[in-house]
């Protein structure tokens, strides 16, 4: 078990790893994190950045609910994931506005700590910029 003051870092790292994983790696990570008592979820996204902002936030929340990372009836937990996802997306906004984006959202939680990482491939012709946004919130279980 990780010390309480290090949980934020561990949870953030798990969210980032989930956002960078492919399907095969995702399954392995889910099992690894389950053993470590970390709850995780991941989901893909894509589209024009401005049109995708709302969809990315919604997908983060739905994935977290579906995988049991948060309780779908707990407004504080729903808001924590939505807020962390919004923060992650906002960090990428200057690079991505006006471009097509695709990537993956990773959500991780342990105890009071929730992190959302969003991995972006920002498209311009055949050249892609890669970027990661990360948001964190604390909620009481």
Tell me what you see in this structure.
With about 140 residues, the chain is an alpha+beta fold. The protein has one domain (about 5-140): Hut operon regulatory protein HutP (Hut operon positive regulatory protein HutP). It is built from five helices and four strands, in the order H-H-E-H-H-H-E-E-E. The protein has helices at about 5-20, 25-35, 50-65, 75-90, 95, and strands at about 40-50, 100-110, 115-125, 125-140. Strands 1-2-3-4 form a four-stranded antiparallel beta sheet, sandwiched between helices. A hairpin with a 2-residue loop joins strand 3 (about 115-125) and strand 4. Homohexamer. Belongs to the HutP family.
Describe the secondary-structure layout:
Layout: H1 7-20, H2 23-35, E1 39-48, H3 49-66, H4 75-90, H5 93-96, E2 100-110, E3 113-124, E4 127-138
Antiparallel strand pairs: 1-2, 2-3, 3-4
Helix pairs in contact: 3-4
The CATH homologous superfamily corresponds to Hut operon regulatory protein HutP
What is the CATH top level name? Alpha Beta
Summing up helix and strand content along with how strands pair, one would put the structural category as alpha+beta
Radius of gyration: 14 Å
Subunit structure: Homohexamer.
Keywords: Activator, RNA-binding, Transcription, Transcription regulation
Family: Belongs to the HutP family.
InterPro entries: Regulatory_HutP, Regulatory_HutP_sf
């Amino acid at each position: 078990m990780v010390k309480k003051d290090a949980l934020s870092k561990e949870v953030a790292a798990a969210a980032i790893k989930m956002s960078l994983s492919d399907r095969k790696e995702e399954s392995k990570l889910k099992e690894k994190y389950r053993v470590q008592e970390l709850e995780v979820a991941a989901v893909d996204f894509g589209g024009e950045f401005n049109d995708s902002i709302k969809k990315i936030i919604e997908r983060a929340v739905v994935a977290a609910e579906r995988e049991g990372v948060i309780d779908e009836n707990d407004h504080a937990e729903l808001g924590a994931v939505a807020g962390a996802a919004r923060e992650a997306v906002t960090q990428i906004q200057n690079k991505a506005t006006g471009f097509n984006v695709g990537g993956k959202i990773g959500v991780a939680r342990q105890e009071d700590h929730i992190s959302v990482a969003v991995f972006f491939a920002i498209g311009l012709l055949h050249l892609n910029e890669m970027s990661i946004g990360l948001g964190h919130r604390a909620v009481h279980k």
